[in-house]
Amino acid sequence: MLPVRGRDGRAARGARILGTRTAWTPVGDGEFFCPGCGGDRNYQRLTGRRRFTLLGVPVLPRGETGPVVACGACGRHFGTDVLDHPTTTRFSAMLRDAVHTVALAVLAAGGTCARASLETAASAVRAAGFDDCTEEQLDALVEALAADTGRVFGEPCGAGLAIELHEALDPLAPHLATIGREAILLQGARIALADGPYTPAEREVLATVGAALTLCADDVTRLMAAAARTPS
Questions:
Q1: Where is the Co-chaperone DjlA N-terminal domain (predicted)?
Q2: Cβ contacts of residue 86 below 8 Å, gap of 6+?
């Protein structure tokens, strides 16, 4: 192989003589969803100090860099904003809790907790991850919530219930595609329709669910109408 000559050759030799090196220091660790691996992995949070090198030997400080998140499996570095994405385990729990909260809210708004509504709600909650959920459990929870808050079955969506829905849905919405957010609303709509047409209180609850899921009012209306046209 011929030796490298000319300007490019001089640049290559210069890069070998002068360079920079970063010394990383761990400052924390945990579990995160690694975009590189596509799954939950352990990570280290690192801060770094950069130095000029001469012939590979650090000689002068060049300042700090980072922090970064280093995957314990693939070794790739990511910005710390990657930690804003929930792990698969955490995401599953958020989705399960969101479906459970929506089901309870719609049942409470329905007024009577009819058997058909309870069956539809329990099926949705079990599919979301609460494998042992029963109709009797949901019925008891709705009654307990009403007794604890002084709410009356079938009343409009009050401030307390709206807060509960937003607390369950707001953290989840940014991590769901549109089709996923629409699916949660449609589940609530099917629970409401299981015992007959929407009541005004059910419509209000579903509107609150749609807002918490960052669905526009027109999309909420469209989805509710579509659910009403679909045979159960």
A1: 98-223
A2: 33, 94, 175
Which residue has 């307990």 as its token pair?
144
At 101, which amino acid appears?
A: T
68 φ, ψ (degrees, to nearest 5): -130, 170
Q: Which residues pair with 132 in a beta bridge?
A: none
DSSP-derived letter for residue 153 is T
Q: What pTM value is reported for the model?
A: 0.78
User: What residue spans of 18-134 are helical by DSSP H?
Assistant: 88-110, 115-128
- Check whether the bond before 61 is cis (ω within 30° of 0): no
> How is residue 197 annotated by DSSP?
S
CA distance 195 to 119: 10
49-97, pLDDT tens digit by residue? 777 656 656 555 566 677 999 999 999 999 999 999 999 999 999 999 9
Structure letter (DSSP) for residue 2: P
